[in-house]
Amino acid sequence: MAAEADQARSLSDVDSEMDLVQALRQGDGRSHAQLWHRFGAPLHGFASSRLGGDRGLADDIVVQTLAAAVQGIGRFNSRKSTLSAWVYGIARRHIQGELRRQRRRKSVPPSAQVPLEEVSEAASEGDTATDVAARLDAQREVAGLARVLTDVEMEVLNLHYAHEFSEKEIAQIVGRSARAVHSILHRAKQKARERLVRDAD
Asked: Of 14, 55, 77, 200, which one's alpha carbon is 20 to 30 angstroms from that of 148?
């Protein structure tokens, strides 16, 4: 029963994506807002995580990505990719371009940290000390993982767990085979488990 519900949801998502693609190709102005509504927030989270928590740069990446998606929608091929994987692939290319520019400027992107605005949000929502301590603990765990995982392992873990992409979709986003992504994900999970066990000891 659950499998049937998942399949129905999956088919509904495909229909919804194709309706959006069709509207974008026809130049329907409302489709731009739909595209933003569907992808704006998750893309921002994806970009922010790859850019060390820099929200301003993440804003820029989202705008660049969605503008490129609108302009390039004629090149989207539903037989080769889902719309989500295609859009995230565009975002990934923009992120990689930004990271290359940062390396050329010999500047290091902001490291994983709790942004000040999040600290103030936590203060207004409840127990500041508890909330901030939890954020700092999570930050330390992510920083610890970043020391043992490669960039692509972190990226694949992020896409799989935070953004719930399948291995096949991740393969489309990162430009690797599904088998390679499966191997990267398995290796990343193994390293993460070993790190957590070591930290627990």
From this structure: 55
For residue 165, give the amino acid letter: F
CB-CB neighbours of 150 under 10 Å: 13
> How many domains is the chain built from?
1
Question: What CATH number is associated with residue 66?
Answer: 1.10.1740.10
Residue at token pair 């995230």: 88
Q: Within a domain: residue 74?
A: yes
State the sign of the Cα–Cα–Cα–Cα dihedral 162, 78, 185, 115. Answer: negative
Predicted TM-score (pTM) above 0.85: no
Integer-rounded Cα Rg, in Å, for the chain is 19
Q: How far is CA 44 from CA 19, 41, 58, 105, 106, in A?
A: 23, 5, 6, 24, 24
Residues of the chain with pLDDT under 70: 1-15, 105-144, 196-201
Structure confidence by residue, pLDDT tens digits, 135-184: 545 555 555 677 778 888 888 888 888 888 999 999 999 999 999 999 99
Question: Can you tell me the distance from the alpha carbon of 119 to that of 125, in angstroms, rounded to the nearest whole number?
Answer: 10
- Considering the domain boundaries, does residue 65 fall inside one? yes
